[in-house]
């Protein structure tokens, strides 16, 4: 009797185990079916990932493509994006664009509009910059009345030279406060004034410098990393005044209306460009000592915020300026004007 009871209990236990196993099997089948339906691989499976790569043909990429309207950041796109093969230096890219401009000669001048002010002009290697005969003036000082907008003051041009070296400075004060201090140092060679270092300091600004590295034939700057080739006769923002006087002194007959003098001029901001001066004709300059005879030359800007330069050269004073006007905006707010007072 006891043995029979134990047999029945054992049979019931085996049946219960079989039932539990069957239920587990059904549950596992259901889970796998659900995973298969949702696209998720079960544990232990090795999913196969297929990546598609679009083949692109070589193409020319613009140096500065037009901006696209963006609807917001895309993190996935940022992770997968590959950098385009373009130069990240906007100044260099702009120089590449500008190199397509026609070369400038003493008889032909490009008249097309150039790039904005922050974009640098073409390298000098693409431009034909003439070399002139010069008669560099002797050492002298010239004092000026200085005006900028409604403010007024005084300035002085100091020029010192010997057989092979020179030093020039232009300092000015407005309303009793220092407004500018420009200095240029260098030599005198077959092309005339040959600057080696130019420094510019204005109110509220640090000193910036231009270095004419004649041993390696390039122009470098203390701030901008841009470099330019160094042609014969290249000038800085101060030395061009004396170089222009030296060219006129060597050939006064070229000072007739419509004649041109072409200089390559660079400033401390890294800008370097052709300056084409056109002779506007004879003109009189009124000074505190009376009216003086002068020759009026104009340099028109080639791009927005470029320098418009007007200079009245005085033959009786080695062709140094009796009057000078530098404008940077059409509204005249930043116009700097000097008129001789001694």
Describe, in plain words, how this protein is organized in 3D.
The chain has helices at residues 2-38, 75-80, 90-98, 239-250; strands at residues 140-148, 151-161, 165-174, 177-189, 192-202, 208-213, 218-221, 228-229, 235-236, 260-266, 272-287, 290-299, 308-314, 320-327, 336-340. It is α+β, with helices and mostly antiparallel strands and 342 residues long. It has a single domain, classed as YmcC-like fold. α4 (239-250) links the parallel β9 and β10 (260-266). The protein is elongated, with a radius of gyration of 38 Å.
Task: Name the descriptors.
15-stranded mixed β-sheet, 19% helix, 15 strands, alpha+beta, YmcC-like fold, single chain, 342 residues
Topology:
Blueprint: H1 2-38, H2 75-80, H3 90-98, E1 140-148, E2 151-161, E3 165-174, E4 177-189, E5 192-202, E6 208-213, E7 218-221, E8 228-229, E9 235-236, H4 239-250, E10 260-266, E11 272-287, E12 290-299, E13 308-314, E14 320-327, E15 336-340
Parallel strand pairs: 9-10
Antiparallel strand pairs: 1-2, 1-15, 2-3, 3-4, 4-5, 5-6, 6-7, 7-8, 10-11, 11-12, 12-13, 13-14, 14-15
Task: Summarize the entry for a quick read.
With 342 residues, this protein is α+β, with helices and mostly antiparallel strands. The protein has one domain: YmcC-like fold, CATH 2.40.360.
The level of helicity is 10-25%
Question: First CA to last CA: what distance?
Answer: 144 Å
> How many domains is the backbone divided into?
1
Shape: elongated
Structural class: alpha+beta
* Major sheet: arrangement of strands: 8-7-6-5-4-3-2-1-15-14-13-12-11-10-9
Tell me the β content: 35-45%
Mean pLDDT: 75
Instruction: Specify the CATH architecture.
Output: Beta Barrel
Helix segment tally:
4
Low-confidence stretches: 31-119
Could you say what the CATH topology is called? YmcC-like fold
Total number of β-strand segments? 15
């Amino acid at each position: 009797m006891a043995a029979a009871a134990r047999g029945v209990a054992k049979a019931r236990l085996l049946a219960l185990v079989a039932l539990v196993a069957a239920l587990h099997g059904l549950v596992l089948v259901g889970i796998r079916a659900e995973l298969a339906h949702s696209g998720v691989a079960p544990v232990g499976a090795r999913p196969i990932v297929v990546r598609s790569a679009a083949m692109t043909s070589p193409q020319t990429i613009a140096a500065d493509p037009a901006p696209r309207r963006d609807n917001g950041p895309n993190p996935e796109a940022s992770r997968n994006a590959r950098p385009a093969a373009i130069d990240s230096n906007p100044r260099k890219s702009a120089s590449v664009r500008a190199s397509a401009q026609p070369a400038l000669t003493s008889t032909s001048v490009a008249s097309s509009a150039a790039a904005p002010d922050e974009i640098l002009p073409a390298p000098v290697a693409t431009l034909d910059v003439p070399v002139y005969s010069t008669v560099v003036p002797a050492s002298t000082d010239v004092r000026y009345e200085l005006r900028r907008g409604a403010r007024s003051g005084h300035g002085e041009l100091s020029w010192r030279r010997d057989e092979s070296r020179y030093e020039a400075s232009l300092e000015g004060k407005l309303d009793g406060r220092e407004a500018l201090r420009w200095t240029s140092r260098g030599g005198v060679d077959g092309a005339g004034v040959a600057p080696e270092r130019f420094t510019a300091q204005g109110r509220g600004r640090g000193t910036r410098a231009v270095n004419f590295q004649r041993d390696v034939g390039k122009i470098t700057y203390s701030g901008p990393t841009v470099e330019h080739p160094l042609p014969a006769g290249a000038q800085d923002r101060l030395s061009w005044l004396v170089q222009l006087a030296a060219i006129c002194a060597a050939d006064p007959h070229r000072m007739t209306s419509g004649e041109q003098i072409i200089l390559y001029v660079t400033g401390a901001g890294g800008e370097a460009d052709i300056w084409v001066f056109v002779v506007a004709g004879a003109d009189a300059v009124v000074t505190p000592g009376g009216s003086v005879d002068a020759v009026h030359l104009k340099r028109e800007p080639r791009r927005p915020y470029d320098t418009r330069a007007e200079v009245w050269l005085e033959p009786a004073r080695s062709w140094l300026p009796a009057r000078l006007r530098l404008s940077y905006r059409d509204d005249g707010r930043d116009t700097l004007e000097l008129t001789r007072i001694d």
